[in-house]
Design goal:
The protein is mainly α and 102 residues long. It has one domain (29-101). The protein contains five helices and two strands; from the N terminus they run αααβααβ. It has helices at residues 2-14, 25-41, 45-49, 65-76, 91-96; strands at residues 53-56, 98-101.
Length: 102
């Protein structure tokens, strides 16, 4: 939620699009922010504020750029983020091989 609110703020301040595609600008900002920061730091800005991080499920190390990309694409689809397995991991985490850690 923190990342989404920050993305809305950035989109409204820096992008004044009147086109029909203007509604996708906050999603594009959200995608870029989450993917880049997860790839570089292992956590988005909102996760960093809450002292959480994304790690590889297999060994607990920082996710690769590819894993962060897969996770972010699936996270933006929302359905994969609200659908959980028996371990409490979202589909976006299972398919990317990551898990959110405190």
């Amino acid at each position: 939620m923190i990342d989404w609110l920050m993305s809305l703020a950035v989109a409204s301040i820096f992008f004044h699009s009147k086109s029909s595609y203007g509604h996708f600008v906050p999603l594009a900002v959200f995608f870029a922010e989450v993917w880049i920061l997860t790839s570089l730091q292992g956590a988005s800005a909102g996760q960093r504020i809450l002292r959480m991080k994304v790690v590889r499920f297999a060994d607990g190390d920082r996710p690769t750029v590819r894993q962060a990309l897969i996770r972010t694409v699936l996270l933006c689809l929302v359905v994969t983020a609200v659908t959980f397995d028996e371990n409490g991991r979202g589909i976006h985490e299972r398919l990317s091989g990551t898990v959110l850690s405190a």
